[in-house]
Amino acid sequence: MSVYGESINKLIEEFGKLPGIGGKSAQRLAFYIISQPSERAETLASAILNAKRSVRYCSVCCTLTDVDPCAVCSNYKRDPRQIMVVEDPRDMAAYERTNGFNGLYHVLHGAISPMNGIGPNELKIKELLTRLKENAAEEIILATNPNVEGEATAMYISRLIKPLGIKVTRIAHGVPVGGDLEFVDEITLARALEGRREM
Question: Domains along the chain?
Answer without folding.
Answer: 15-54 (1.10.8.420), 64-172+179-193 (3.40.1360.10)
